[in-house]
């Protein structure tokens, strides 16, 4: 019996992988590692950097000069995230279910129109809504008077209590198409035989959805949730485009992204500090990492057990 010849090493695979791997290492891994390294250094008297250990993190979390801004930004970021979780993802689920109805006409048109804002720049979206909601030259006030709700119009972007919620709603309007498309694709992948079997057993449309379709798309809903968490704690452009680096009024819309920008680069009277900015970025990374780990260790396990 002849021994099979040993296959040569597939060098061509490395040829195709190395360019992408090199780009990933240079523009993703190296900046991340260098940021982690820089967070352990502080400004020295000679203008350089000196190793200070965890002092930057202690200062950021306990010194009132830094900690007030940090805890305020963290609280606002969680509020921004919960707005998306409570509105964007349920609305995306509802739209996906409606678009998956077999008798719905013009579904492709609806899907395109809903997803279209997602393809636009966040900065453009911010400027457009800033113009629309402006009490001076915006059209929102006249529109609300036209439908009999003019007395409820207010300068929502100019008040501390409503500015962050308004920006959250703008973000939900722009990005609701992403969970919609992901859940819609998951619904289309459900075999027709399973749905037909539930109908034969006497299930109505609501029962079919809650007891057949929903359990099958739970992994997709969970993935959408963790993507929402990561995206919201990396958010920056919308707040900066509408409210600037100071995230006004009175830092009521300040989130981790804008805090990092001011800390690292400086703004107006605040002098930039790359080392403290690196500490803020490191804490952002750890918060995102902790959220992903909780999802993988707790939520994903329960979903797998539920499916079994």
Automatic annotation (TrEMBL):
Domain ABC transmembrane type-1: 74-297
UniProt topology in membrane: Multi-pass membrane protein
Claim: Iron-sulfur is one of the keywords in the record: no
Keywords: Cell membrane, Membrane, Transmembrane, Transmembrane helix, Transport
Domain of life: Bacteria
Transmembrane segments: 12-33, 80-101, 113-132, 163-188, 209-231, 276-299
Pfam families (UniProt xref): BPD_transp_1
Protein family according to the UniProt entry: Belongs to the binding-protein-dependent transport system permease family.
Protein name (record): ABC transporter permease
């Amino acid at each position: 019996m002849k021994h099979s010849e040993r296959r040569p090493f597939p060098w061509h695979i490395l040829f195709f992988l190395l360019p992408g791997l090199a780009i990933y290492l240079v523009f993703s891994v190296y900046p991340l590692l260098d940021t982690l390294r820089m967070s352990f250094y502080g400004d020295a008297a000679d203008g350089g950097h000196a190793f200070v250990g965890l002092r930057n993190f202690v200062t950021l979390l306990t010194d009132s000069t830094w900690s007030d801004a940090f805890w305020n930004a963290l609280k606002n970021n969680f509020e921004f995230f919960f707005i998306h979780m409570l509105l964007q993802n349920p609305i995306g689920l509802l739209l996906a279910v409606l678009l998956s109805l077999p008798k719905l006409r013009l579904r492709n048109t609806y899907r395109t129109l809903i997803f279209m804002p997602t393809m636009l720049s966040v900065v453009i979206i911010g400027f457009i809504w800033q113009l629309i909601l402006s009490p001076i030259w915006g059209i929102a006030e006249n529109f609300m008077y036209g439908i009999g709700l003019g007395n409820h119009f207010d300068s929502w972007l100019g008040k501390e209590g409503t500015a962050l919620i308004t920006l959250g709603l703008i973000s939900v309007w722009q990005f609701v198409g992403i969970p919609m498309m992901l859940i819609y694709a998951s619904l289309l992948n459900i075999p027709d035989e399973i749905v037909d079997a539930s109908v034969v057993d006497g299930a109505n449309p609501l029962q079919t959805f809650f007891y057949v379709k929903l359990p099958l798309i739970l992994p997709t809903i969970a993935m959408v949730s963790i993507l929402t968490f990561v995206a919201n704690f990396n958010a920056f452009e919308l707040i900066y485009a509408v409210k600037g680096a100071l995230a006004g009024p009175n830092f009521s819309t300040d989130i981790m992204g804008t805090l990092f920008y001011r800390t690292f680069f400086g703004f107006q009277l605040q002098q930039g500090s790359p080392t403290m900015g690196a500490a803020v970025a490191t804490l952002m990374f750890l918060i995102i990492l902790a959220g992903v780990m909780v999802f993988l260790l707790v939520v994903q396990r329960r979903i797998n057990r539920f499916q079994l």
